[in-house]
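User: Can you predict the 3D structure for this chain?
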Amino acid sequence: MADIILPRLDDDYEESAVIFWHKQEGDAVQKGDALVEVQTEKAVQELEADTDGVLEKIVVRRGEVATVGDVLGIISEVGADTSNADVVSETSASPVAATAEAERTERSFVRVSPRLRRLAKELNVDLTKTNGTGNGGKITEKDIRIAAEEGGSTAGEKLAGIRRTIATRMKASLDNTAQITETAYADVTKLATFRENYKGKMSWNSWVLYATVQALKDHSYMNGTYENAIWKPSEEIHLGIAADSEQGLYVPVVKNANDYTLADLDREVKERVQAVHTKKIDAENLSGSTFTVTNLGGYGVHFFTPIINPPEVAILGVGKIEPHLVLEDGSVIERMRLPLSLTFDHQIIDGAPAARFLQTVMMYLEMPEKMV
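Assistant: Here is the predicted structure, written as structure tokens:
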């Protein structure tokens, strides 16, 4: 017999949720086969078989939460006599029963995105009884909301997986810091033209991120971590980029962003965000950030109050670029402006130094030639 143990996949958290079993009880298993998909506190990862055999028993089933060191399942050796073993399930004793159990499990598990599954839980909607109107009969968000209106309830559910992680970290952030937010507009009229004529089309977000990195070089007191009453400023800028996904909010990290060119940073950020969306991001690229940027401009948001990503001491929020009219020399002209919201921990940083950092970010955005 060989136990399938949940390993430590994250240094900070103990629990992971089982998302999907690739094998059913009674299935043959070869070393290296993907066995089970688990959602750690920061990412989704697959666990592989360490030995050949038969998946004798699934201990932690789909949707359940396990702790590091827990037995997720049991693999028996091929041909082993398990007739007297108390770990043998009824389904594994009979191939017919195992097949029937697998079919019942498949019928009871509707394949929808984690985001829609979370919504269904919040609205207490039974997905197995929900009619799908999407392509191929897939269940859509509208289907879930209609089902909720027709008979679902808003009974609460215990948070798990990434949602629980976000809740824990954000609550701890507010409990352990003295957060204040300063806001300002950056005039990006010149950058709009500069960007169009610059070699290689970079996204607006990449320009903002690059300007932030340059400003952090000038104001290193904004970059670092504060943990267990110890402030650790960092010369290396490990830039966190808040990224929304179907699973929830992730913060992939570009390590040593201070060494990157604009083009390099643009490429690295796109690769990290893509890895989040395809669930191929690993824990290494989701930890160690010293400053984070979060952009809600694409959602039409202007100013907001981003919450610090602990143990960092500051976070920059980016809003929607918009045209506006100003009076210059008696004439009304159109300019482009970008709203910025800087949240910082007043335990470590005072208002004036934070404002000087924000001014520097604005300066780089308003004079892009200084960045390249």
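The chain is about 30% helix and 25% strand. Residues 194 and 368 are 7 Å apart (CA to CA).
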